[in-house]
Design brief:
The chain has about 100 residues and is of the alpha+beta class. The protein is built from two helices and four strands.
Length: about 100
């Protein structure tokens, strides 16, 4: 699957626009990791557990978006974007979305 953040795929022609596709995941923080994150916040530095969790969440959201596009028969997704929102105090949603297309 071709994925780009632009509104076209260089060197191709869009044959058909299949519409919006999306994939999301909601992740909750781990209370034990929150204690470690609090300590890291005092001394500064990267909170690697959360960095890893967010990277995994983005990958899962992208995988779900690709599955959505494949169901429509797309071979590319243009205008790929990510957004995140807080669902509740200890949980966040990662959403990947774009436009499914068929390119030549």
């Amino acid at each position: 699957m071709i994925m780009v953040t632009t509104d076209f795929v260089p060197g191709t022609t869009i044959e058909k626009n299949l519409g919006l596709v999306k994939g999301n995941t909601i992740r909750a923080r781990h209370m034990g990791r929150d204690i470690l994150a609090f300590l890291r916040n005092i001394v500064g530095g990267e909170i690697r557990d959360y960095t890893k969790m967010m990277a995994e969440s983005r990958e899962q959201a992208v995988d779900r978006m690709v599955e959505d596009a494949e169901r429509l028969g797309a071979n590319a997704i243009i205008n790929v974007r990510f957004t995140t929102s807080m669902i509740m105090q200890s949980a966040s949603e990662i959403l990947a979305y774009g436009t499914a297309v068929i390119v030549e």
